[in-house]
């Protein structure tokens, strides 16, 4: 009725995993056909943001942050390239569903799309009220706070919302 289309913008998982383990230079010419023509590894704020995440979580056999960062950039630049191509081919509104890590603070997909095409966009970060979050004042256009329900990985609710101003933060209950 509305002539809606659905497109995949993701990179094959095996490509991202290979880069995360062995670096972008490990990709064969055939594998490189699946990724964006230009991968930007120069955003120092993005690098610091991901380094903090990397240091706080276990990543299995991923011991090399540089490869982890390359994989994230391959992933985000490729999605951004696909989005830019879709916007050129199908002008008009486009809704992209991506994880918060790819849009928070606009480091990932949003900035990478803007480097490829001039476009007006808005970002929506979906966030559970009980989970901690901190990001820059303009880290998203909208924050969609979900209910205070508990998820499978949270045996109890130790978080409460304490401040929404220049940053959004949650503080552990005393």
Task: Describe what you observe in this structure.
This protein is of the alpha+beta class and 174 residues long. The strands form two sheets. Strands 1-2 form a two-stranded parallel sheet. It has a two-stranded antiparallel ribbon with strand order 3-4. It has helices spanning 13-22, 29-32, 44-56, 65-89, 109-114; strands at residues 124-128, 142-146, 159-164, 168-172. It has a domain at 10-91. The longest helix is centred in the middle third of the chain and has 25 residues, at 65-89. It is built from five helices and four strands.
Unreliable spans = 151-174
| Helical percentage | 25-40%
Q: Give the biggest sheet.
A: 2 strands, parallel
Q: Which sequence of SSEs, written as H and E, runs from N to C?
A: HHHHHEEEE
N-to-C span: 53 Å
By DSSP, the count of extended strands is 4
How many helical elements? Answer: 5
Radius of gyration: 18 Å
Across the major sheet, the strand order is: 1-2
What is the average per-residue confidence, as pLDDT, rounded to a whole number?
Answer: 81
Q: Proportion of β residues? A: 5-15%
Report the principal-axis shape. globular
Sheet/helix structural class: alpha+beta
């Amino acid at each position: 009725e509305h002539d809606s289309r659905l497109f995949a913008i993701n990179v094959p998982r095996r490509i991202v995993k290979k880069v995360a383990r062995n670096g972008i230079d490990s990709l064969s010419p055939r594998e490189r056909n699946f990724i964006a023509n230009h991968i930007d590894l120069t955003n120092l704020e993005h690098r610091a943001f991901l380094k903090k995440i990397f240091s706080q979580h276990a990543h299995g056999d991923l011991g090399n942050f540089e490869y982890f960062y390359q994989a994230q950039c391959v992933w985000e630049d490729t999605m951004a390239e696909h989005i830019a191509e879709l916007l050129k081919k199908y002008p008009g509104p486009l809704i992209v569903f991506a994880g918060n890590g790819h849009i928070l603070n606009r480091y990932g997909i949003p900035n990478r799309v803007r480097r490829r095409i001039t476009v007006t966009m808005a970002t929506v970060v979906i966030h559970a009220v009980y989970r901690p979050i901190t990001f820059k004042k303009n880290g998203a256009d909208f924050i969609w706070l979900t209910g205070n329900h508990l998820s499978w990985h949270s045996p109890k609710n130790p978080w409460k919302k304490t401040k929404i101003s220049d940053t959004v933060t949650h503080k552990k209950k005393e």
